[in-house]
Design goal:
Layout: E1 2-3, H1 13-24, H2 29-32, E2 35-37, E3 46-52, E4 75-81, E5 83-92, H3 95-98, H4 103-127, E6 133-134, H5 153-165, E7 184-188, H6 190-197, H7 200-209, H8 213-216, E8 225-229, E9 235-236, E10 246-252, E11 257-260, E12 268-273, E13 287-296, E14 299-300, E15 306-311
Parallel strand pairs: 1-5, 2-11, 6-15, 7-8
Antiparallel strand pairs: 3-4, 5-13, 7-10, 9-10, 10-15, 11-14, 12-13
Length: about 325
């Protein structure tokens, strides 16, 4: 479909590159939680994510004057072929004389949001394949999540317990000498956020220790998790009991998954084709296009370092 947008100056491309990226990056919440890998130019289409594995504990006493056998470092390597994604709009020359709004700038805003949402969904599709899932209360499967089974603080604490038991390192900060501290990375839908902030314990915390939160309702660093709220958190429509919608909430430790660094040079681009650039295919110079493209290859690196909470939400 050809939209009636204005022609685009080639000299403005740098501005539109920046504009598109600025509009896309705030949407990329999941990308912030991944182990980022750059894709240098002329380096092929393969990405390698690597993780050094833990050594076995050394519980056998040393023998005097005898050098023990050296431990061997081992690496888990996950490789794959990056894929390219993109979208564009086709514009006409007519609005050049008629437009009231700066429609090309507006188009790059729309494209930036589309780029961020698209890459976020691509990453989400990989992460929902994770097998570590915690349900509310005594629920044992997605199909049995009832409308009343909303998210609770206890469910979040179970997820953190799972990550700590699996020796998942905090995403933000470090543990102290007591084995505490640091924050995991949480990714939650606004409708689940509503139920978390309505939990009695959370409300009491707001009331007695940080009453300002009652006005902002900003989800704090809660239960050792730093939260990002996004409408791109997974929703399994009608998958629960009696057709209830089931919402997914991710909690990750460090290096749970990897992504291509879409913010790097050459990874996230605005593509500009001005009027007349099509040559004889556009003999009257009536069409130009503006689009975006990006490389991406999300991969789960360690299923033990991530948990998906599934729950219903309040009406």
């Amino acid at each position: 479909m050809t939209d009636t947008l204005g022609s685009l100056s080639q000299e403005a491309k740098a501005f539109y590159d920046k504009n598109l990226l600025e509009r896309a990056l705030p949407i990329l919440g999941l990308a912030k939680g991944g182990q980022a890998r750059s894709l240098p130019a002329n380096s092929g289409n393969q990405i390698s994510y690597r993780r050094f594995n833990q050594l076995s504990t050394a519980t056998t006493a040393l023998t005097e004057s005898v050098t023990p056998t050296a431990a061997a470092l081992s690496v888990t390597e996950i490789t794959g072929t990056v894929q390219q994604y993109g979208n564009y709009v086709q514009i006409s020359d007519a609005i050049d004389m008629l437009a009231i709004d700066p429609v090309v700038a507006e188009a790059t805003d729309v494209l930036g949001e589309n780029a961020g949402q698209s890459i976020e969904e691509i990453i989400r599709a990989e992460l929902v394949s994770g097998t570590s899932v915690i349900y509310p209360g005594s629920v044992v499967s997605r199909a049995t999540v009832a409308a009343a089974n909303v998210m609770t603080l206890a469910q979040i604490r179970k997820a953190v317990r799972t990550l700590m038991t699996n020796d998942a390192q905090p995403f933000y900060g470090d543990r102290d000498e007591t084995g505490q501290g640091g924050l995991y990375f949480g990714y939650v839908h606004p409708r689940v956020w509503f139920d978390i902030t309505g939990d009695t314990t959370v409300l009491n915390t707001f009331t007695y220790s940080d009453p300002e939160k009652l006005y902002t309702m900003k989800l704090p660093n809660l239960a050792q998790v730093a939260w990002i709220i996004s409408t791109k958190a997974p929703v399994f429509t009608g998958a629960g009991a009696s057709g209830a919608d089931v919402y997914g909430t991710f909690i990750f430790g460090k290096d749970a998954f990897g992504v291509v660094n879409v913010g790097g040079t050459g990874k996230f681009q605005t593509i500009v084709k001005p009027l007349g650039s099509a040559g004889s295919a556009d003999p009257l110079e009536q069409r130009a296009t503006v689009g975006w493209k990006a490389f991406q290859l999300p991969k789960i690196l360690n299923n033990n370092f991530m948990v998906r909470l599934e729950s219903a939400v309040s009406a």
